[in-house]
Amino acid sequence: MKRLIPAIFLILNLTVSLVASTLHLSISSNPSKLNPLIATDSASGEIADWIFDGLLAYDKDGKIEPRLAESYRFENNTTLVFKLRKDVTWSDGVKFTADDVVFTWNLITSPKIYTPYSSEFRYVKEVRATDPYTVVVTYTKPYFKALETWLTSIVPKHKLAGEKDIMTSSFNQHPVGTGPYTIDGFEVSRDIVLKANDHYFRHRPHIDQIVYHFMPDPGTEFLMLKSHKLDVGSLTPLQYERQIDEDFHRYYHIYEKISQSYTYLGFNLKNPKFQDPRVREALSLAIDRQELVDILFFGHGRVCTGPFMPGTFAFNDTIKAPVQNIEKAKRLLHEAGYNAKHPLKFEIVTNSNNPIRVYAAQIIQYQLAKAGVHATIRTMEWQAFLNTVVMPRKFETVILGWGLGLMPDAYSIWHSEGSRKGGFNFISYKNSKVDRLIKEAEQTIDRKKLGKIYREIFALIVHDNPYLFLYIPDSITVVNRKIQNVSQSILGIMHNVIDWIKP
Question: pTM of the entire structure?
Fold first, then answer.
């Protein structure tokens, strides 16, 4: 009888593994670091979001609610007190405490790491633990994003306190978090497997594992969707309008909403070619943005008019997109010293795994040629593009996009302090009035006054043309109809994946 027990356990384990539910997703670029404090690319951020939590989070309606915190309260306009949950453990079984919060603050604001996220804590004077489950945060002045600061993921003190170099730590590939899923590690250009955290404090996810299939070619994702091998994926407007059939509609629900993102052509303002505002204005006037939207999106997108999203308090609806004017563009270029014998020449660089951006570059190249501008195009794999071109600022122009949070914050992208190493202002934009208004806005709690300041910032940035704002795409997401409890929200459809059930 004793010899049968291992065999029985083997059969039981095999049965469990056979019925384990798996959510199949795709990822088009390699994550670099899964430490959320230094994960600056979208692939790393997406994976890290499954593994880590912040003290606070957005609910489905975009309102802030406690997450690792049990509750919070303002003692006054510069003091925020958190009571932490007592039922949270790190994925290695160690208890989560206030020491982890204090450690995270010390780390993200230390010179040991290069991270744009440190700007979120620039007005935090002190973070202290008054007991294992109480954290008191003191700000130097009233701050309009005092709560949003603590959406930042918390990292474990017991795993990182002894690390000499956080930037190269093995933790970045083998993270330990408090989130709904865990990961043993990942390899470059391989599928990524996340497993449900059995001890997740909200509740164990109903789906046992998530598999991200590595697909650098977006066409492969579409083929996998058509063959029903992915549960969730994205469609391009062309695919949605021309390339799916009734079988596809029977298998997938389709969800569409305006995305919280925009795409732009950004200038390296350290490059002498683009320091003359007449050149930037000429290039803006040479581009027909509506033609871009019509060709690329078949009506599933809109022209972007500036740095903040429609529907937010910061959006300035009095600012309209420039109308293409080739003759004026030529005249401005001539004033700046360019002509047919000495044309303006520059390179546009973008990432190869985003075909929409590549097509946009080709259309822009064609449009600029009408004004006598010679633009060449270079496309690169995402990590190479990010690490050797964008962050070192070794480019003339780039086509990139920003995904924006629900609370607009101009500081990290548009304040001149954001141009330091590791910062998001990698085009080196500087406008002293914009700098002043951003600082003023940070201390403005009144939403009406805040909106007025931000709309002025919007207009000033657009006037300077540091970016050519191009388009805002719609987000078209498909989900396997068999999956239960899927719901659309301001955050998208992935906001409640831990509640999804896949029969």
Answer: 0.78
